[in-house]
Amino acid sequence: MLEELAKIREEALKRLESIESEAELTELNVNILGRNGALTGILRGMSKLSPDERAAMGKEANEVKQSLTAAFDEVKARLEAKAEEERIKAETIDVTLPGVIDVPAGKLSPLTLVYRQIRDALIGLGFTTYEGPEIELDDNNFTKLNLPLNHPSRDMQDTFYVDDKVLLRTHTSACEARALMTLEPPFRLVIPGRCFRVDEPDASHSPIFMQMEGLVVDRNLTFADLKGTIDTFVKAVFGESVKTRLRPSYFPFTEPSAEVDISCTICGGRGCSSCKGTGWMEIMGCGMTNPHEIENCGLDPQEWKGMAFGVGVDRVACLKYGINDIRLLYEGDARFLRQL
Ligand SMILES: [Zn+2]
To answer: Most C-beta atoms within 10 A of its C-beta, which of 26, 33, 103, 217?
Structure first.
């Protein structure tokens, strides 16, 4: 019987060495230590032995049982550690591998591109950016800018009113009033932002559009300063070969006022269907700030002169990138943006 016991132990230990899975381990455990296992069988057979033999045999069998149980636990721990290691290995992510999912990247809107080009050119001339709210007081949007209550530009049909005194600004010029009232002159500002007018959207109209206002306030400003400034940023956006010209015009907040034309970017000035054969394209309005506006905002028009221009960023973007429908600028269609 002792021999049998030794044999059971020897075989069990030998088999334990080569066990690779928990299922195998459980099976072996059942075969040896289980209710019908080999060791249990021996323990049962001990009832036939004499008391002395039984005591010796029992001691030996217990030792075998204990050592085997310990060996089983050890293998179990080894298998569990191995499984854990494999699990961690399987879950490890190599962050240096290239991605497998094609994430579509966004692109900058032509409005942003054109805005940055103009802004950067103006910053090179000593301008700083300035911003105001999109919901504005009627006073800043109109009255302070020399647009009295009965002025045709204040027509209800053009303006989104919030109430009698508050509206969605119709131009970035509303920020001129804010700047004139709060900043210490002299200053040079570039003022970008969205503006709103009641307009049915079509290829050339949008109820939301983007403007950039330029405003300079200083002591000795002349129309030549205005022309030079405009010429500089137009060339920065459209290239050195593009020419600018000023045509007399009228705006209530500037005196004198002018429209700015640039030589046609498509035909170079020879005349084509885009410029209706004239060789010129209108891009914005400008002028010397009306002394009434300067006075309305609390500065002395005898001391301080102003010059201003308002660029339709949408219009410039359409001209620069050959876009024939202004709505494309506001729809955020990735297919459109990818072409630029
Ligand atoms: Zn042309």
So the answer is: 217
Would you say 258 and 308 are in contact if contact means Cβ atoms under 8 Å apart?
no
Domain range list for the chain: 2-91, 110-338
C-alpha closest to that of 230 among 217, 214, 249: 214
Cα 52 to the center of its chain, rounded Å: 88
* Of 6-15, 153-162, 201-210, 329-338, minimum mean pLDDT range: 153-162
What would the two tokens of residue 78 be?
């080894």
Q: How far is the CA of 276 from the centre of ligand 1 (A)?
A: 7
Q: 323 C-alpha to center of ligand 1: Å?
A: 15
In CATH, the architecture of 110-338 is 2-Layer Sandwich (3.30)
User: Which residue in 272, 266, 265 sits closest to 237, CA to CA?
Assistant: 265
Q: How far, in whole angstroms, is CA 11 from its chain's centroid? A: 68
How far is the centre of ligand 1, averaged over its atoms, from the C-alpha of 270 (Å)?
Answer: 6
CA of 176 to the centre of ligand 1 (A): 34
Other CB atoms within 10 A of residue 120 CB: 14
| 3-state SS, residue 175 | helix
Tens of pLDDT along 317-336?
A: 998 888 888 999 988 888 88
SS3 194: strand
> Is the pTM higher than 0.70?
no
User: Which 8-state DSSP code applies to residue 278?
Assistant: S
What does the angle CA 264 – CA 266 – CA 272 come to, to the nearest 5 degrees?
A: 75
Please say whether the beta carbons of 5 and 42 come within 8 A.
yes
